[in-house]
Amino acid sequence: MPAKAFNMATSLLAFLQPETWTGINIDLRPKETEREQPRRTLQESLSQKLSALFDRNKNIDVQDARSGGTSEEIIASVLGQAALTRFSELRKIRAGWNFGEGLPMSSAAELNLLFLLSKLGRPIQNPRLFLMDDGGIELQWKDSSSARISIVATETEFELYMRGSTEKRFELRDYNELLKAALNDQIAA
């Protein structure tokens, strides 16, 4: 590479380093709509709270796992070791898994599911986990009458599917109503 081209490239790279931008404040992000802003704020809040909980590095019991453990500890304590193994498998799935259309597990959907699991009063028996095409995570189990119940954690909401009922959608902040509807107050905290 000629010396002049090398010097130009070096100057350009130095300019692109953020610490060399004094007095420049450019925001290229699209403006949020009024509807998007509260959702983003809630997701950031949940993400910060869960991140703080997951940063702990000590041995904890089942009760602590729900309130402040790692994602693995929360899943194992609420859903069991088999579900934790399944969850680890789902995390490894790459884009294009469903005839080229499926997305990998969404980190926002994962955080939303973990938050929901941390709010359960006792473990779910015989749970099943599935990855959805859009990167959401489905938690499925049967109630005491063998009726199938499914909760899908997406990036922006929860979806509830139950026998004899239409699909119901819940905003993230309405997790208590979701748990009451899905569990009939059986295992909600």
How is the biggest beta sheet arranged? Answer: 5 strands, antiparallel
Strand content: 5-15%
What count of helical segments does DSSP give? Answer: 7
**Helical percentage:** 40-55%
How far apart lie the N and C ends?
66 Å
Output the helix-strand order. Answer: HHHHHHEEEEEH
For the record, the count of structural domains works out to 1
Question: Could you characterize what this model shows?
Answer:
- The chain contains 7 helices and 5 strands; from the N terminus they run ααααααβββββα.
- It starts with a helix and ends in a 6-residue tail after the last helix.
- It has one domain (35-183).
- Strands 1-2-3-4-5 form a 5-stranded antiparallel β-sheet.
- It has helices spanning 3-16, 36-54, 62-68, 71-79, 81-91, 107-118, 175-183; strands at residues 128-131, 137-142, 148-153, 157-162, 168-171.
- Mean pLDDT is 74; it is low at 6-28 and 51-66.
- It is α+β, with helices and mostly antiparallel strands and 189 residues long.
Chain-wise SSE layout:
Blueprint: H1 3-16, H2 36-54, H3 62-68, H4 71-79, H5 81-91, H6 107-118, E1 128-131, E2 137-142, E3 148-153, E4 157-162, E5 168-171, H7 175-183
Antiparallel strand pairs: 1-2, 2-3, 3-4, 4-5
Helix pairs in contact: 2-6, 3-4, 4-5
